[in-house]
Input
Amino acid sequence: MQLSDHLTGCRVMISAGASGIGLAIARAFHQQGASVQVCDISSEALEAARSELPGAGLFRADAASEADVEAWFAHALAQLGGLDVLVNNAGIAGPTSALQDLDVAEWDRTMAVNVRSQFLCVRRAVEPLRQSSRATIINISSVAGRLGYPMRTPYAASKWAVIGLTQSLAIELGEHDITVNAILPGIVESERVNQVVGAKARLRGIPDADMRAEVLQHVALHRTVPMADIASTALFLASSPGRSITGQNMNICAGVQTLR
Output
């Protein structure tokens, strides 16, 4: 049976869904016949995504802002008439620095976007999800949510927090038949990863290519992960075959053994 048999008409909200992994997930649901509403902090990204997501709802919002999240949910739920799937994708890389050199504002912003945003969205989504027969929450964490990540402490700490949020919500919301899982991408082929690799290379004083090779040396498959693989996992978790999966950390990481 095709996933589209399960996902046609599915009502989906995706935070930070206008670029990167979020856009890949939004595109995948859209192609399966789901009704998709996305928010993003970037007006430029939203405009660029318009041609890729015809008919989808595109709303400018900072997912770390309570007022913005409230406005997005009011708009999106009015358009969808309910909710079946929430994908908490909003996240930033945060600073690359030794802990003692970190700016407090950078720490706070990383935590706000990567953790507070998920809290705000889930809090607003629970009631409409309780009315769905296929209620699904998918939180995007990272392989940095199970491994230490030197020089990237705010990012790692925030992604470990997402795992705690996911595990707790899976138990708390299980009585309402709402599944809650986390996807832990590895080193995804993306512009963000290129920027992180570049920042670490500058700290080490080595070429970007050498830094990239060193990073991939600790990946079992010795390659990055295509964004389409993350999107396919999200589709599966939201489909009928995924209805008995909850409280799980889905490592889509090509076998990352350590982060450097």
